[in-house]
Amino acid sequence: MRVSPGSSSHYLLSRDPETFLLFACQLPSSNLGFVDLKAVEIELEVAGRDLTITQSPGLLTSSRSGGTTGAVLWKITPLIAKWITTSTAFHELGVALSSANVVELGCGISGLIGLCLYRHVASYLLTDQEYVMKFLHGNITTNSPQLSKPSRQPSKQKDTASSAGNLMTMT
User: Fold this and answer.
1) What is the DSSP string of 79-104?
2) Burial class (CB within 10 angstroms; exposed 0-12, middle 13-18, buried 19+) of 88
3) What is the pTM of this model?
4) Which of these, 29, 32, 117, lies nearest to 72 by C-alpha position?
């Protein structure tokens, strides 16, 4: 995409060559933005809360079909969690977080954004693939001991769901 310099309007000159170049290039994948690719446990502080996140570096490097990106904590996740719990943007937009029902698609092993935000919203549903759930439930239990351990109950489909207060998980 080419953007006219100094112009407030953005326009597309030619989509096809740009798209080809974008997807034809070999991109480095040695560090796609993980907090720590090798650590099994990561300790961090987000919005005044000390958290310990257990992750699975071995699973990330496995040849598991269906993806493995949810196996480790991404660098952007703590930043979003901090921003979303300390920002006044929602209030300024007239959004009442206390009555919000949030669904996070693909929360990964940490559930970090849900762990930081669930106290501020009406309900928070964390979703991801089945292979993530063991770590996710462990991280919820470790970092929110006041919540009872989520129990996994099969739904009408192959999906599983669990709940602990207003923080819920589902595959």
Assistant:
1) HHHHHHHH-SHHHHTT--GGG-EEEE
2) exposed
3) 0.69
4) 32
Cα–Cα distance for residue pair 155/2, rounded to 1 Å? 48
**Residue-by-residue pLDDT tens, the chain, 171 positions:** 444 455 455 555 566 666 766 667 665 555 558 888 889 999 999 988 899 999 988 887 777 777 777 888 999 999 999 988 888 888 888 888 889 999 999 999 999 999 999 888 999 999 998 888 999 999 999 998 666 544 444 444 444 455 556 788 886
Here the tokens at position 95 are 């959004």
Half-sphere exposure of 83 (CA within 13 A, CB side): 6
Separation of first and last alpha carbons in the chain: 37
Percent composition of the chain: helix, strand, coil (DSSP 3-state, to 5): 35, 20, 45
Find all residues with CB under 8 Å of 70, minimum gap 6, and list them.
106, 107, 108, 109, 128, 129, 131, 132
Q: How far is CA 13 from each of CA 2, 3, 7, 154, rounded to the nearest angstrom?
A: 6, 8, 14, 51
Which DSSP state fits 26? P
- In the numeric block, the tokens 């693939």 are attached to 129
Strand 41-46 vs strand 49-54: parallel, antiparallel, or unpaired? antiparallel
